[in-house]
Design the sequence.
């Protein structure tokens, strides 16, 4: 039986716990005495407790995150009642700040704050060497981890299993930290930026390729900060690219010089996804949250990506930022629509623990939910009812605008109107009035509702709406058109999935040109 168990509750089975693999990789001589166990937040807490106790460990280390803190607290509280002598160690971003008032912390023996790749092993050595140490000699409850350099760390990629590589999201990183100071983001606290030594990192990537991994999700906050390194990594993957390979990067949207453009343009359509955090187009809001951004250069970069590359662009905007009005958010959304990214993630502002955005709470009346994920409820510019409308807007946009199921049909929502935002908000209000919900809407029913809205509310010709919807249906790989338009369009004979490279993520593949 292992003495040490590293565990966490992932948001879904498909996710892998990248941080735990770093901790496991850097246990040194303790590694043979340890094991890694992953669960997800949909599993029953008592089943998780049973699985952990069956291993009979002396120490359990939990990764605590925004999405799992409530469920983890229940698991930890139950473990504490059943096994009072068990050493429970917490770590992760959710418990690295404002620890005093967190329920999950009260049941733990120790909390490691910050990047604990090396500190976890050191604490385990101390606890295993002296499990019943005098209180005066015991380690403190809150232990700030010293910031490790990448050269000190053993890379964790060998600890992805073959099942992980075949069926789950595999995360990699070439750097940590962020040079920017955006007040809503925990990465703004991670200074300085540190890069992994390039040669061993690329060797690890080669091993993953040799083992059959096709999808690489980079978690670097600013992949294109160091142009030389990012170009070297892109060249590495391009030289080894095979059909079905897919690479996700988070990019600084206004930083895309010629030496990066040239290599990016050589990737085939669908191989690259860039997540670009725009967040706001309002320069006054940007100044309030300490976010620096060159909007002209950003627009030029997105124009280049959309017209001269096959990159799938996932662009982020945030609802509820300090100083952002409904009108200014609408203007930003319309501006982004005009730039044509394949996906726009409309996120609701969250007050993450430790972030300095809390300085605006009193002057701007920022009120957040006390429950994870701590979303904004209202402020002086956006009341609760308005923010509820925008939450529904964000959800319906994801179902209709982002999903790839309604690429042509979505555009009809705002055709011949001055504002895509205003048009889609009207559709969102109508859809909520018709369904009373924002989840568990079957795709066929959603298609019928979209068609009904376009024909009955927008008064578009049924043939026009049906043609667009039928083409979307076919492009997504569905042969029979939805029942609502079956009499208006013929089935597509022999229609096959639009995913030309079967291992590409389905949602992104739907956005590939027909």
Sequence:
């Amino acid at each position: 039986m292992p003495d040490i168990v590293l565990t966490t509750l992932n948001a879904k089975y498909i996710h892998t716990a990248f941080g735990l693999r770093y901790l496991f990789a850097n246990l040194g001589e303790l590694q043979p005495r340890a094991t890694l166990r992953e669960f997800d937040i949909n599993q029953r807490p008592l089943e998780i407790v049973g699985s952990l106790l069956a291993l009979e460990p002396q120490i359990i280390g939990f990764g605590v995150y925004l999405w799992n803190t409530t469920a983890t607290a229940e698991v930890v509280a139950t473990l504490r009642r059943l096994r009072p002598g068990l050493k429970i160690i917490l770590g992760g971003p959710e418990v690295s700040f404002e620890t005093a008032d967190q329920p999950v912390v009260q049941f733990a023996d120790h909390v490691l704050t910050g990047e604990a790749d090396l500190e976890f092993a050191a604490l385990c050595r101390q606890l295993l060497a002296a499990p019943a140490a005098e209180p005066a000699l015991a380690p403190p409850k809150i232990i700030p981890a010293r910031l490790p350099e990448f050269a000190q760390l053993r890379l964790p990629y060998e600890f992805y299993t073959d099942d992980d590589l075949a069926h789950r999201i595999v995360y990699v990183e070439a750097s940590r930290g962020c040079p920017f100071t955006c007040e809503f983001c925990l990465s703004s606290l991670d200074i300085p930026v540190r890069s992994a030594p390039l040669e061993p990192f690329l060797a690890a990537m080669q091993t993953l390729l040799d083992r059959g991994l096709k999808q690489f999700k980079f978690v670097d906050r600013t992949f294109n900060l160091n142009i030389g390194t990012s170009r070297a990594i892109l060249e590495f993957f391009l030289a080894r690219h095979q059909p079905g390979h897919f690479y996700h990067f988070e990019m600084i949207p206004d930083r895309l010089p010629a030496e990066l453009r040239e290599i990016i343009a050589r990737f085939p359509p669908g191989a690259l996804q860039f997540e670009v955090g725009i967040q706001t187009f309002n320069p006054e809001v940007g100044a309030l949250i300490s976010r620096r951004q060159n909007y002209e250069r950003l627009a030029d970069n997105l124009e280049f990506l959309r017209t001269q590359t096959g990159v799938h662009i996932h662009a982020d905007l945030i609802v509820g930022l300090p100083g952002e009005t409904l009108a200014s958010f609408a203007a930003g959304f319309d501006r982004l629509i005009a730039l044509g990214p394949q996906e726009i993630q409309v996120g609701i502002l969250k007050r993450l623990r430790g972030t300095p955005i809390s300085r605006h709470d009193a002057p701007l009346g920022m009120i957040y939910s006390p429950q994870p994920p701590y979303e904004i409820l209202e402020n002086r510019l956006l009341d609760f009812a308005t923010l509820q409308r925008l939450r529904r807007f964000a959800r319906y946009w994801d179902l209709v605008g982002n999903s790839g199921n309604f690429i042509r049909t979505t555009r009809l929502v705002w055709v011949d109107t001055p504002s895509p935002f205003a048009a889609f908000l009207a559709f969102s209000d109508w859809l909520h009035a018709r369904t009373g919900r924002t989840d568990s809407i079957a795709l066929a029913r959603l298609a019928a509702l979209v068609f009904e809205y376009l024909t009955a509310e927008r008064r578009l010709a049924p043939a026009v709406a049906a043609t667009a919807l039928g083409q979307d249906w076919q492009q997504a790989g569905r042969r029979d058109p939805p029942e609502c338009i079956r009499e208006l369009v013929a089935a597509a004979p022999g229609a096959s999935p639009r995913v030309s490279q079967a291992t590409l993520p389905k949602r992104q593949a739907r956005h590939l040109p027909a």
Observations:
- Residues 492-501 have pLDDT under 50 and may be disordered.
